[in-house]
Recover the amino acids of this structure.
């Protein structure tokens, strides 16, 4: 036994040496996984970009024949100095413990936590004590020695990356960070400001945007999301009948749960016990049942032949996702290394693609949800929303009245069976053929007619009144008054425009007075002079002389005009960013 | 001068600056108002709860549930198998009573600690209470066309007749206690925004309106049957027209032509000149004006159209009928009119459109946002020779 482990140890040492020497090779294989490579690529790209800009500027300066222009070398020196400054600032902030903010604390915590999680003793196997102690064999190999316990070969690079982040960031990353922070306003409004969560205690202050953190999170998430995507795939396989036995099992279990909901926790517990723990045990202690591999399987299952919806070609158990394979240790080191890398890279890329698609689906779903919330549920199209509401109300009432008389267990299970049978790839086309297009057209016509005449939108419009003041200026004689302006301001001696001796905002004719946006004038109304001068003067706290319909002071007189404005409804709700 | 082409006017502020009431109110009234203030506040809060206008909506739900549970206290017999429900109802009622007492107590103690309200404060609360009461009244009694239908005794009688079978059906399925509980729930949610909005949305549906008007317009064959209103307006009941003997033999269109000429010339000539001394030379005619209303409704997609709602006046209606029953079109009408009427006007003349709201109340001569219906009157004068 001991000699076996010694052999393993030797192989590890060999592997580590290979990894250190073959780092470049690994980088070539997995460009996405290696942060350094990416950085250097971006750095290269930026350098090229600046080269272009510089060359253009150089040309321009030559064309203009301007001697005073800064030379390329100076420019580059300036950029370098500013980059250095940025780095220095960052380091200074990191070192100055007194000036440490909550954000820095969190960043530090995140780094530490990640390091811990990677070198966590959780992954150490108590049966392989040498492995954990192996890290102490030589001081040089300490990082890599720990990483053996982590899955796969990519972890060593990950560790290195984190070390580099902890020590000093790459220039480009700092540059990008700076660029982003320059684009954003200084005090980025917290999400909490818009919601009630502002008073919620114990909520962590949100983190500033950082490319470093974002890219790291993305990397870790992508590597670990394999299980989720596998689960998603298996659900799709179940629904599309590509795994008919699985589909029928699921349906049966669902039916059982419908009749006895307590089965739900029982089945979950059963899955944990027999689906996860027993295989785990079996992995550790195989029962040594000898299987004789047969060359060919003869015969077919009736169920599978009848019910299959397609080849279950990509069916695979979830346990081979990202799991460390001990059995391959004895193969040729270099080949194994390369194969492992390729597999990991592939897996990473596939996961990344799935993540991207998931994000696209999420975006689409959010957009649809938004459309529903602000469109159909927001009475954007009043007719459609009313129909939706009324049919929903009808369904609600009917369900409420009928629900005591319906056997929901039977309904749910029969519904599930019927639904999945309808979705069967062989049944669905026949069903869609059965429902011919004419009927659909007819249904649409009926719906249109319903929309046309069965919904009556004749609510009283909202009514408000507008007011303006027609202001006249004292002429040469006391009887002479010249028209001055039409304005919303009373323009009394205490008015701010009057004090600054400027005319108030206004127009020369009532034609140019418009209603506030979303409102319009009632066409059956006109501007009416308010004869109750005393009342409106009192409401404004003005005690001036009254002359007929005018309120007169030493230099101006004005009368108040009102007019009715109407609108059918408030404009529909809209998200703030639209 | 500032010459801006477009200028947005400002709204009239409904609550403008009013002169303070503190110094203008007599101390006696101020004191009375001040003593009345706590009652007012508690009443306002009760109204808030009934109208679900309290800040915390969940409280409304909790109170509603507690009230529904408390209804079980009214159960006359003691049933041991339902001990849990009895206990729950007792608990709910107790909690409700305690919370009411606690609220009143805390309101009073808060007021004692706080500075005294001004008369203006009290008036504002009073106005809000009155506003809410008015709102509740409108929600119960209805307004516009719907109010008229509920307010008569006849309508109330009908309501009772209609509700009796519903009541009977409810009693078959539910126990009186359950019915009472549902009634309480309805009572305490009826004035909530959700209930009122649901009612408004339901009112948009044509079948709902049809059903409503079918029930309320049901007259049990009592009124206005067989009593058709007149289709014309009498302009002159006994107009004396000179009628030469030479025209005696004429019939049909030539007679009409002659009489038309006579009428027109007579109306232009001096009336005193031919005061009839010989009765043979004159005939007495009755001059009337036939009037028919043409009605239209505005639809969002097609604009003004003759498509009207089943319960309201139809495309052509009788102008002088208070019920606005439907009529033939003017051209069909002139075909079917009895033979002894002779037309004075050559053709039907229509007035300008009159724009109305959804319940045919006149709004003005121009199409505006609030106008959903319009009508115009077709008129034509005619006469009949009196024997």
């Amino acid at each position: 036994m001991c000699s076996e482990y010694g052999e393993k140890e030797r192989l590890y040492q060999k592997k580590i040496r290979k990894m250190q020497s073959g780092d470049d090779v690994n980088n070539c294989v997995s460009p996405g996984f290696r942060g350094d490579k990416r950085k250097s690529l971006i750095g290269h790209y930026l350098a090229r970009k600046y080269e272009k800009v510089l060359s253009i500027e150089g040309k321009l300066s030559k064309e203009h024949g301007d001697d005073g222009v800064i030379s390329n070398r100076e420019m580059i020196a300036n950029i370098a100095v500013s980059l250095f400054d940025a780095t220095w600032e960052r380091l200074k902030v990191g070192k100055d413990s007194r000036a440490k903010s909550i954000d820095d604390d969190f960043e530090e915590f995140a780094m530490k936590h990640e390091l811990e999680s990677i070198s966590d003793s959780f992954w150490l196997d108590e049966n392989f004590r040498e492995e954990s102690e192996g890290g102490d064999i030589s001081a040089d190999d300490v990082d890599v020695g720990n990483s053996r316990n982590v899955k796969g070969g990519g972890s060593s690079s990950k560790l290195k990356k984190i070390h580099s982040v902890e020590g000093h960031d790459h220039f480009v990353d700092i540059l990008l960070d700076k660029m982003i922070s320059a684009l954003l306003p200084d005090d980025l409004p917290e999400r909490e400001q818009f919601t009630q969560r502002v008073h919620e205690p114990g909520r962590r202050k949100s983190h500033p945007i950082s490319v470093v953190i974002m890219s790291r999170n993305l990397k870790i998430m992508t590597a670990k999301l394999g299980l989720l995507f596998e689960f998603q795939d298996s659900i799709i396989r179940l629904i599309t009948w590509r795994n008919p036995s699985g589909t029928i099992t699921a349906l049966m279990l669902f039916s059982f749960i419908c009749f006895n909901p307590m089965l739900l926790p029982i089945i979950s517990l059963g899955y944990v016990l027999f689906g996860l723990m027993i295989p785990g045990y079996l992995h550790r202690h195989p029962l040594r049942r000898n299987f004789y591999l047969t060359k060919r399987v003869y015969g077919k299952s009736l169920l599978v032949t009848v019910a299959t919806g397609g080849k279950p070609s990509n069916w695979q158990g979830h346990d081979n996702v990202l799991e460390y394979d001990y059995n391959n240790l004895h193969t040729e080191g270099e080949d194994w290394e390369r194969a492992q890398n390729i597999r990991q890279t592939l897996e990473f890329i596939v996961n990344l693609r799935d993540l991207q698609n998931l994000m696209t689906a999420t975006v689409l779903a959010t957009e649809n949800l938004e459309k529903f919330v602000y469109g159909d549920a927001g009475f954007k199209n009043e007719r459609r929303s009313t129909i939706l509401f009324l049919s929903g109300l009808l369904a609600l009432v009917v369900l409420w009245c009928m629900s005591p008389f319906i056997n929901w267990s039977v309904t749910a299970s029969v519904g599930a069976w019927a639904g999945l049978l309808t979705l069967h790839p062989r049944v669905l086309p026949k069903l869609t053929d059965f429902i011919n297009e004419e009927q659909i057209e007819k249904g649409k016509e009926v719906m249109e007619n319903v929309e046309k005449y069965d919904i009556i939108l004749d609510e009283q419009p909202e009514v408000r009144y507008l007011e303006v003041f027609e202001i006249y200026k004292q002429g040469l004689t006391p009887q002479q008054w010249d028209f001055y302006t039409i304005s919303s301001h009373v323009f009394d001696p205490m008015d701010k425009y009057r004090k600054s001796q400027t005319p108030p905002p206004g127009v020369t004719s009532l034609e140019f007075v418009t209603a506030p946006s979303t409102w319009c004038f009632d066409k059956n109304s006109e501007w009416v002079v308010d004869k109750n001068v005393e009342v409106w003067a009192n409401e404004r706290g003005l005690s001036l002389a009254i002359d007929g319909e005018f309120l007169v002071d030493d230099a101006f007189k004005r009368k108040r005009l009102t007019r009715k404005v109407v609108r059918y409804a408030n404009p529909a709700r809209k998200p703030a960013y639209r | 001068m500032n010459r801006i082409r477009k200028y947005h006017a400002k709204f009239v502020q409904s609550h403008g600056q009013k002169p303070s009431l503190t110094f203008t109110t007599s101390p006696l009234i101020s004191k009375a108002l001040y003593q009345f203030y706590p009652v007012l506040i508690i009443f306002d809060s009760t109204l808030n709860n009934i109208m679900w206008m309290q800040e915390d909506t969940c409280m409304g739900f909790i109170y509603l549930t507690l009230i529904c549970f408390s209804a079980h206290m009214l159960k006359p017999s003691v049933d041991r198998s339902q001990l849990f429900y009895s206990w729950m109802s007792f608990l709910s009622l107790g909690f409700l009573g305690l919370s009411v007492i606690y609220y009143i107590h805390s309101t009073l103690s808060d007021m004692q600690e706080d500075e005294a309200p001004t008369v203006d404060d009290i008036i504002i609360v009073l106005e809000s209470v009155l506003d809410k009461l008015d709102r509740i009244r409108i929600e119960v009694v209805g307004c516009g066309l719907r109010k008229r239908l509920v307010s008569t005794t006849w309508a109330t009688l009908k309501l009772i007749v209609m509700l009796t079978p519903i009541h009977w059906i409810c009693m078959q399925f539910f126990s009186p206690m359950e019915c009472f509980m549902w009634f309480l729930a309805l009572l305490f949610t009826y004035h909530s925004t959700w209930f009122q909005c649901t009612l408004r949305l339901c009112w948009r549906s044509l079948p709902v309106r049809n059903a409503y008007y079918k029930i309320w317009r049901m007259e049990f064959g009592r009124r206005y049957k067989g009593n058709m209103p007149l289709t014309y307006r009498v302009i002159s009941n006994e107009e004396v027209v000179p009628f030469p003997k030479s025209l005696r033999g004429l019939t049909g269109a030539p007679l009409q032509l002659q009489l038309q000429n006579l009428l027109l010339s007579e109306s232009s000539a001096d009336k005193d000149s031919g005061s009839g001394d010989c009765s043979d030379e004159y005939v007495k005619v009755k001059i009337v004006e036939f009037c028919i209303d043409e009605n239209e409704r505005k639809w969002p997609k097609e604009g003004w159209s003759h498509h009207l709602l089943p319960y309201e006046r139809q495309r052509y209606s009788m102008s002088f009928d208070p019920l606005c029953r439907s009529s033939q079109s003017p051209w069909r009408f002139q075909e079917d009119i009895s033979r002894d009427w002779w037309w004075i006007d050559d053709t039907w003349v229509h007035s300008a459109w009159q724009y109305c709201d959804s319940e045919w109340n006149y709004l003005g001569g121009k199409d505006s946002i609030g106008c959903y219906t319009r009508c115009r009157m077709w008129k034509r004068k005619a006469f009949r020779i009196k024997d």
Summary: Residues 83-113 of chain B form the longest helix (31 residues). Confidence is low (pLDDT under 50) at residues 270-278 of chain B. Chain B touches chain A at residues 1-12, 16-19, 198, 200-202, 204-207, 209, 299-302, 307, 309, 355, 357-358, 363-372 (CB under 8 Å). The CA atoms of residues 71 and 178 of chain B lie 9 Å apart.
